[in-house]
Amino acid sequence: MYGAKSRVILEGNLFQPSRDLRLGRRFTFQQDNDPKHTAKPTLKGFKWKHLNVLSWPSQSPDFNPIENLWYDLKIAVYQRNSSNLKELEQFCLEEWAKIPVATCAKLLETYLKRLVAEATIELIFAAFATTASASTSLIMQLLRHPAVLEKLREELRTRGILHNGCMCEGELGLDTIVSLKYLDCVIKEVLRLFTPVSGGYRTALQTFELDGVQIPKGWSVMYSIRDTHDTSAVFKDVDAFDPDRFSEERCEDKEGRFHYLPFGGGIRSCLGKQLATLFLRILAIELASTSRFELATRNFPRVVTVPVVHPVDGLKVKFYGLDSNQNEISSDLLADIKTEELLGAEV
Ligand code: HEM
Q1: What is the rounded CA–CA span in Å between residue 318 and residue 291?
Q2: Percentage of residues in the chain with pLDDT exceeding 70?
Q3: Residue 263 Cα to ligand 1 middle (Å)
Q4: Closest of 37, 44, 51 to residue 4, by C-alpha
Q5: Which end of the chain, C or N, has fewer beta carbons within 10 A?
Q6: Is the distance from the beta carbon of residue 272 to the nearest atom of ligand 1 less than 6 Å?
Q7: Which ligand 1 atom lies nearest to the CA of residue 191?
Q8: What's the distance, CA 131 to chain centroid?
Q9: Residue range 294-298: average pLDDT?
């Protein structure tokens, strides 16, 4: 298949259906970055149509040893110039047999390295991008909802963690952190309304029916976390940022197993769930107790959802440290340090 053919396929399977569904530009196209899908005319066409294409690591034979062997085989067979199909098959068999065992052994030997590289890239996305997204959303929601921030500070005061605005050293153990109920509600609500990961894929192990639609065995099925949170009937006033929906009295998430699933569901759900929530709780405690912060731009930035929820061009925030009497730490005291660097941060 060549670039031109792939463009015909795109017209029939992407552009026409997006027109039929009246999607306009409200969708993001994800592809595997195979060279024929990234040919210059194709990319130009994407640009011309203002298509939002997800940037994605290119398809790499590094992660798939057999791809290296296919490549060697292709070159060897091509050089023999077959004149008919029978001959082509014969050359393939001969050249395949000629590949030295040492070549395969080397590919296997270095496989572990490639696997580590792949796992590292995956973990950077799974752990870093997600937690960064949730942290940014947390800060943005605390900025948007000062009453929530104040209620959080009140909880910290009531629990003796915050005195006159200062966090008292030595009192913040794991037990205390996980027992802060309102804090838990705030984190849960951030992850409901600003779900960092939009969904996941599963393979159907057997044919089944869902709402009258048959899903055949072997199909890849995408489940959408964001749509689930958006459409779940258990959440009242679904668009409102309302941490109290998770309070003991209301417990909106307790009605079913799969209405609230920011960390996915089933055996392939998030491995870092506890670590991520602990991190977010500590961040919220730190922000509520040791700093005052404000938006450094006139308006809140626009938020996009791909590849994770994040503000376009970042969220610019000014942080002011508070001393033990809840006074701002004077910038004179910080004269030796570049104040702007210290207090202005881009999240
Ligand atoms: C707020 C932060 C996070 C969110 C919202 C999140 C969300 C998710 C979701 C939805 C999945 C399941 C995807 C699926 O169904 O296929 C997942 C999987 C995973 N997450 Fe997280 N995650 C977060 C943080 C972390 C952290 C900090 C780590 C590691 C330290 C981590 C490691 C993983 C791993 C290894 C998987 C794959 C599990 C498997 O396939 O068995 N995540 N995460």
Answers
A1: 10
A2: 85
A3: 6
A4: 37
A5: N
A6: yes
A7: 5
A8: 8
A9: 94
Testing ligand 1's pocket by substitution, the residue of 202, 270, 274 carrying the most ligand atoms inside 8 A of its CB is 270
Cβ proximity of 7 and 42 under 8 Å: yes
Domain ranges for the chain: 3-53, 64-123, 127-290
Q: Which value, in Å, is the radius of gyration of the alpha carbons in the chain?
A: 27
Q: What is the dihedral of CA 329, 335, 338, 339, to 10 degrees?
A: 30
Binding-site residues, please? Answer: 270
CATH numeric code, 127-290: 1.10.630.10
C-beta separation of 56 from 28 below 8 A: no
- pLDDT one-digit tens code per residue, 312-321: 989 999 998 8
For 152, the token pair is 């959080």
Angle at 346 between CA 340 and CA 347, to 5 degrees: 145
Q: Which residues pair with 222 in a beta bridge?
A: 201
For ligand 1, atom 40: residue with the closest CA = 268
Q: Is 210 exposed, middle or buried (0-12, 13-18, 19+ CB in 10 A)?
A: exposed
Q: Is the peptide bond before 307 cis (omega within 30 degrees of 0)?
A: yes
pTM, whole model, 2 decimals? 0.72
Give the β-pairing of 162-163 and 310-311: unpaired
Q: According to the model, what pLDDT value does residue 171 have?
A: 63
Binding residues for heme: 270
Protein residue with its CA nearest to atom 14 in ligand 1: 200
